[in-house]
Amino acid sequence: xxxxxxxxxxxxxxxxxxxxxxxxxxxxxxxxxxxxxxxxxxxxxxxxxxxxxxxxxxxxxxxxxxxxxxxxxxxxxxxxxxxxxxxxxxxxxxxxxxxxxxxxxxxxxxxxxxxxxxxxxxxxxxxxxxxxxxxxxxxxxx
Length: 142
Ligand code: TYD
Prior knowledge:
Elements: E1 2-8, H1 10-14, H2 18-27, E2 31-38, H3 42-48, H4 58-65, E3 70-77, H5 80-88, H6 101-105, E4 114-116, H7 120-130
Antiparallel strand pairs: 1-3, 1-4, 2-3
The structure holds thymidine-5'-diphosphate.
């Protein structure tokens, strides 16, 4: 059983779509192991998006991600990392098919509703980055 890290981004909360997005994860059978609202900081984002730091528009991404608090979640299930990425659709919302979260709710590349871990190693690193000991629970499915 894998666990992945989800961030409901500022555009998701601004559009009051948190419930819809969480509902899609629950409908897919995933189990919520952790959930909290947090104001992201520049330091944390520079670590989280270290692979994007060299992009000329990185400051724009950081500004967007700090524009209001986000909801961080840890959700678990069989093959959850890949399955959540499939539910999201591609990074660019304008290229995401209808029926995917980004295709239905996203606006463009940056305003794409949800972050999700993209592999086992990043999921492990992001669990440590966003959740302290005691904030993750072992909850049986069903
Ligand atoms: P990335 O890790 O490449 O994509 P994903 O979130 O799908 O794993 O990029 C992280 C975020 O940075 C992405 O969700 C939105 C933003 N971003 C842009 O705004 N423009 C870009 O060209 C890229 C590559 C990312």
